């Protein structure tokens, strides 16, 4: 019986996802199997290996990625893990979009509640 849980995340850009995970300090393996309970495995494009034998993986499902893991065995705070990735990913996507559209970052600050405030502008 599989214990894998799949969480849909609003991540579409695999390259930015890869950069995000690496910037958060995770070592990645590519196109590998995610290990779970009792030797069960499932495929993922990006895999974070854990010493306890319960890995975390991201795999493409249509237009977006999903997180797949046996969270019972992985012993991580699922919500904190997803939140940290989503915040970093959103920031990287914003910065990419800002540059592509010819804007400059005028100001950036992290507020007390963890919100990142970015002011952009461009000369027209």
User: How many strand elements?
Assistant: 7
Q: DSSP strand (E) fraction?
A: 35-45%
Q: Report on the biggest sheet.
A: 5 strands, antiparallel
* Number of discrete helical segments: 3
Mean pLDDT across the residues is 94
Distance between the termini: 60 Å
> Structural class, from secondary structure content?
alpha+beta
How many structural domains are formed by the residues?
1
Topology:
Blueprint (H helix, E strand, L loop, with lengths): L4 E4 L5 H10 L4 E8 L5 E8 L7 E6 L2 E6 L1 H4 L3 H23 L3 E7 L5 E6 L3
Helix pairs in contact: 1-3
What can you tell me about this protein's structure?
- By secondary structure, the protein is an alpha+beta fold.
- It has one domain.
- The chain has a five-stranded antiparallel beta sheet with strand order 1-5-4-3-2.
- Helix 1 packs across helix 3.
- The longest helix is centred in the last third of the chain and has 23 residues.
- The protein is elongated, with a radius of gyration of 17 Å.
- It starts with a strand and ends with a strand.
């Amino acid at each position: 019986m599989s214990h894998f849980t799949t969480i849909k995340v609003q991540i579409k850009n695999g390259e930015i996802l890869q950069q995000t995970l690496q910037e958060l300090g995770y070592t990645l393996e590519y196109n590998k199997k995610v290990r779970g309970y009792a030797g069960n495995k499932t495929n993922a494009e990006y895999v974070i290996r854990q010493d306890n034998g319960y890995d975390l993986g991201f795999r493409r499902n249509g237009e977006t990625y999903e997180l797949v893991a046996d969270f019972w065995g992985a012993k991580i705070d699922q919500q904190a893990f997803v939140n940290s990735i989503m915040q970093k990913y959103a920031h990287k996507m914003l910065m990419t979009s800002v540059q592509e559209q010819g804007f400059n970052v005028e100001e950036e600050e992290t507020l007390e509640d963890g919100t990142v405030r970015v002011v952009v502008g461009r000369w027209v």
